[in-house]
Specification:
By secondary structure, the chain is α/β, with parallel strands linked by helices. Helix content is 41%, strand content 22%. Strands 3-2-1-4-5-7-6 form a seven-stranded mixed beta sheet, sandwiched between helices.
Length: 199
C-alpha cells in the first residue's frame, strides 16, 4: 500500500483553486467533448444514460456528457467547485464518496471521474473503485494519467502532494482487482488514458 495522503490538505487545495480552475473550463469542455465524439461509442451506454460525475470540479467532463444527451449529476467534496459547476449548468452537490454515497445500488448507467483518483492514496482510491462499482449498473470510466511521465505534470503533482507518483506505477493493474474487466483506451493525449471498467 502507498503512504497515506492527507485528504484534508488535498481538499483544502481544491477549495483554494476553484475560481482559478474556472479559467480552464471552456478548453477542458472542448477537449472532453472532442474525446466523446471520437471515443464515446466505446462506452456502450444508453443514448440518454444516467451519469454520475465524481469529483466534478467546475463540471467540464459532466457537461460534455450532457452535450451528448445524457442526464448528468455531479458531486465534489469542494463547496466552491460545486458552486462553479452549477454556474456552468451542471446539476451538482457537495458529497464525499470516501464516506459512502446515499445512492442505491445500480443507480447509474455509468460513473465517470476525470483526473480524480491519482491524487488520493491507494486505500482511498480503492474506496472510490468499490463505491463506483456499487452504484453503477455496468461501466465506470476513469480519465486519468498513465505511466508516461511528463515533467510539467510531475512538477504540478509534486506541489499538490497527492499520490500521483505511486498511482502511475500501478495503473491500470489496480483497477483489475475491483472490476471484472478494464479496457485501456489510448485517447492520443500522451500521458492520459481512458480506463473503461466493467462492473
Amino acid at each position: 500500500m502507498s503512504p497515506r495522503v492527507s485528504n484534508k490538505n488535498h481538499f483544502r487545495l481544491f477549495e483554494l483553486i476553484a475560481r482559478g480552475y474556472q479559467w480552464f473550463f471552456n478548453s477542458q469542455y472542448r477537449d472532453y467533448k472532442q474525446l466523446l465524439d471520437e471515443f464515446g461509442k466505446k462506452l456502450d451506454i444508453p443514448s440518454e444514460a444516467h451519469v454520475l460525475d465524481i469529483g466534478c470540479g467546475t463540471g467540464a467532463f459532466g457537461k460534455a456528457f450532457q452535450e451528448f444527451g445524457h442526464d448528468v449529476y455531479g458531486i465534489d467534496v469542494s463547496k466552491k467547485m460545486v458552486k462553479m459547476a452549477k454556474r456552468n449548468h451542471l446539476q451538482a452537490s457537495q458529497a464525499n464518496i470516501l464516506e459512502g454515497l446515499s445512492f442505491p445500488n445500480d443507480s447509474f448507467d455509468i460513473v465517470i471521474a476525470a483526473n480524480v483518483v491519482h491524487g488520493l492514496g491507494q486505500e482511498d482510491r480503492f474506496k472510490i473503485y468499490r463505491e463506483s462499482a456499487r452504484i453503477s449498473k455496468k461501466k465506470v470510466l476513469f480519465h486519468d494519467y498513465n505511466s508516461t511521465r511528463n515533467p510539467g505534470v510531475s512538477f504540478i503533482e509534486w506541489i499538490e502532494g497527492g499520490d500521483y507518483f505511486n498511482f502511475i506505477k500501478t495503473v491500470p493493474d489496480e483497477f483489475s482487482t475491483v472490476f471484472r474487466d478494464v479496457q485501456v483506451i489510448d485517447i492520443g493525449k500522451g500521458y492520459s488514458s481512458w480506463y473503461l471498467c466493467s462492473v
